[in-house]
Predict the structure.
Amino acid sequence: MQKIVSIKCPKCNNNHLFYRYGKDKYGYQKYLCRNCNHQFAPEKPVSRQLQNYPRCPVCGKATFLHHDYDFYSNFRCCDKICNHSMFVPKSTAILPASMSKLAGKTDFKRMRYPIHIIITALSMFYLGKNSFRNIALILRIVNNVKVSHTTISNWCKKFAPLFNNLSLDLMPMMNFDSDEWHADETVVKISGKKYYIWFIIDSETRFVLGFHLSPFRDSNQAFTLFNSVKDLGSVQSIVSDRYNAYKMPIKTVLGDKVQHIRVESFKDDISNNLIESFHHQFKAWYKTKQGFNSYDSANNLISMFVFFYNFVRPHSALNGLTPAQVAGLKLTKKEKKKYLLVA
């Protein structure tokens, strides 16, 4: 039986003046309207896929996908008068920061030595410039505790997940809303190869909000860094050097409302000297280690250094307080023992 299809031009509503006009690429019969010369295939099923695109934040109208990249998409307003351009990050595509990839112990169970001895050894390593052999010597002379320097080295690496969990528990008690966050990267060596450590610091509290260790120095690593700290607080501006890798990640992940200040150290009114000062302290501790042996041990050691810098080390620029205390952390003596902030 022949299929009867009612033919009607979708453009001018003509229903009697047509030409057969071949077939389209899917094999459906096409017609040409003799009134308006519009071509159409009435038998072709209508399949319109609705795109879940965001609305324009300026005028509220629909947007279209202008460019699609690995970590973000660029949308433009359909209104030619508005023509607003917006950048939407792909959170699922951005890789997690290295500070969330720690391996080791999360408690002090089944340890041969008392907890206060372990905490003392960790404090001497991360707050000073002592080597593992010097710490073992001090513990033997002062505390009459014989412990191998290799054991102390293992302590300084294996407890990184434990202190990271303590940091995550304490973060909600602090306020990181600030005028400026400072971001920069520096070089470390792992087994003789160059790696880059990316830091971001709050200007008001000197608190290290996050870090990321990577063998690459490109925009993808900056995406990872800012995506890991975007929910910690609201910030008005990000201060960085003139490296172009920061430009798109800040604009995409943190939004257009956050101002990006690109400076040259020691020359502009607003400088990046705060994080350069932190790098000076970090390098002073790092140089005593003469590099790292592996990526995992380097990641763990840096994570522990950041914890002691944020929660244990008092800063003269902060009137003898720690960055965590300036950020609003107030703990009782019982809570300090719980979070291992006293030996």
Observations:
- Residues 295-311 form the longest helix (17 residues).
